[in-house]
Amino acid sequence: MADITDDDSRTEAVLATLINKCGKMRMLSHRVVLTLLLENAKADKCRDALADLEKNITEFAQIAGDITPGSGKSKLPAALKRILVKVEAVSQSQSEELARFVSIARSIQARLAEPVSARRTAAIEELADFVKTTLLDTLNAIVEGISRALDHVVSQRQSHVGQQNRTIRSSISELEKISRMIMIISVNASIEASRVGAAGRGFSAVASEIRTLSQSANKVISSLRSQYDREDTV
């Protein structure tokens, strides 16, 4: 059974959005570190800055939950989660690195109300190094994983369309055979009706109508055949 539904374009759009969200996670992590560095040395904390800090950490955590298919917080469609798992878009260790960033940021955030200390400053500096190295590598790897999922969906869609086209072409061939048989039968019926004479005139008219319908059907079938033959050459 295929991993995707007929709404493949929506699936591709969601995956593209997830890639963009990974880029946003990079930005959010930088904002978090920058805010922590700026607010760390202040005796009077900026209320707006603290509100933004909370917002940025929360949004990072929400996106991390969404892109991790095994997470109970993910709101992605079940079919899309299966695809992400199948291509191993987000590994367990990568998921842990995302959770690590949120955990450390939350821990430092909770200590901002305390007087400035060398320990807290060191923790922020360590978080900054983590964001610039490990977290950046992790997010880049996740983007590659989601890109694999996107390639998988596109490949599945193309395969699905190809199978549909093969089925349609097979059906067209069968229709052509049936149309030819009907034409032969109608011609034979006309010949037989003419042999009967006056008594066969009514049947001869019916045979003629059947032949006309068969000819019209042939035109439609030929048009379909030409259309799919052109698509094969594109």
Pick out its properties:
234 residues; Four Helix Bundle (Hemerythrin (Met), subunit A); 2 domains; rod-shaped; Type IV pili methyl-accepting chemotaxis transducer N-terminal domain-containing protein; transmembrane helix
Task: Give a quick precis of the structure.
One of its GO terms (cellular component) is membrane. One of its GO terms (biological process) is signal transduction. This protein is mostly helical and 234 residues long.
Secondary-structure blueprint:
Blueprint: H1 8-40, H2 47-67, H3 78-86, H4 92-110, H5 118-196, H6 201-233
Task: Give the count of structural domains.
Answer: 2
How do the helices and strands follow one another from N- to C-terminus?
A: HHHHHH
Largest sheet: none
The CATH topology label of the largest domain is Four Helix Bundle (Hemerythrin (Met), subunit A)
* Uncertain ranges: 1-6
Describe this structure as you would to a colleague:
- Keywords: Membrane, Transducer, Transmembrane, Transmembrane helix.
- It is found in: Membrane.
- It comes from Marivita cryptomonadis.
- It is a multi-pass membrane protein.
- The chain has helices spanning 8-40, 47-67, 78-86, 92-110, 118-196, 201-233.
- It has 234 residues and is mainly α.
- The chain is 83% helix and 0% strand.
- It starts with 7 loop residues before the first helix and ends with a helix.
- The longest helix is centred in the last third of the chain and has 79 residues, at 118-196.
- Helix 1 runs antiparallel to helix 5 and helix 2 (47-67) packs antiparallel against helix 4 (92-110).
- It folds into two domains: 8-162, Four Helix Bundle (Hemerythrin (Met), subunit A) (Up-down Bundle); 167-233.
